[in-house]
Amino acid sequence: MSHILLSAKMSSTQKVLLLGATGATGSSILDGLLETNQFDVEVLVRPGSVEKPSVQQIKNRGVPLRVADLNASEEELVSTLQGIEILISAIGPHDLLQQKTLVRAAKSAGIKRFIPCAFITIAPPQGTMLLRDEKEIIYNEIKRLELPFTVIDVGYWHQISFPCLPSGRVNYAALVPNTTIHGDGNAPNILTDLRDIGRFVSRIIADDRTLNKYVYTWSDILTENEILNIVEELSGEKIETQYESVQEMEKQLEDAQSSLSLDPTDPGKRTLVYITQYIYSKYVRQDNQPRYAKFLGYLDARELYPDFKPISFREFFTEVLDGKAKRPYGY
């Protein structure tokens, strides 16, 4: 009898293939999928990445690898995707358009749900963020082909949302040491702990309510001033902040876009545009908040899963103060 029950459980397990598992977002997704017993998880890697230590670490966890070049033909990618029910892409920002052939292959392979690489702040579908514009090209290809999908956005991470302290004791966890307040510091922003992204994803992809929908995750909605107050309260230190005006943010954005126009393929210049557009969208337009997400038609993951207890910003920063946090990307 137990053998029959086990077989039934195994047959109901959904087969998931994850692309980009070695990145920050992809690693969180992999952890979230493996924490549950709902999924049979495999990882898609490029031929040139198979021997990398980060990929070998995944293999050592017992996760099977499927090896494929994303520039391969659609036919080859269809073969790679055989037997997969859910395909998740956490591809890097400079490679987003490589998903085009993957989308077509997913349709031909009968993928039941494709999760394209989203996982950013709430923003308009066009004209505000180059990063979102390029993601939207993939979303539109998905819709053109009528491929079942879910778009998941996560706001901004806790891990890149805290100011540094005069003592320097949290610098070890900071991607870029920073004490800048943008505008008046009162723009509300959706925040999610990086570690919770995978936990949210594992719920969202198993939920029929999220099929062909946009979903956003969050643990806190905080302004920069509110974050500053939490950091000062928990640390006992007073932070000397610098204020950046709307005009200064607009000038930085204009300069970054002008520089990129001279060399559109330069990844460093593209990254600078991404960063300045994030800042403009979050603090000038104030896009990254629940009100605008609901206007755009997003579902709220916290409303979908009221029992889910995400890591709050306060909990996260307590870990930072205790020396237990990790710097994003491990730099």
UniProtKB/TrEMBL annotation:
Record SUPFAM superfamilies: NAD(P)-binding Rossmann-fold domains
Annotated transmembrane regions: none
Keyword Nuclease: no
Upper taxonomic lineage: Eukaryota, Fungi, Dikarya, Ascomycota, Pezizomycotina
Protein name as annotated: NmrA-like domain-containing protein
Keywords: NADP, Oxidoreductase
InterPro entries per UniProt: NAD(P)-bd_dom_sf (IPR036291), NmrA-like (IPR008030), NmrA/Isoflavone_reductase-like (IPR051609), PCBER-like (IPR045312)
Pfam families documented for this protein: NmrA
Species annotation: Aspergillus tamarii
Residue stretches making up the NmrA-like domain: 13-253
One MF annotation (Gene Ontology) recorded for this entry: oxidoreductase activity
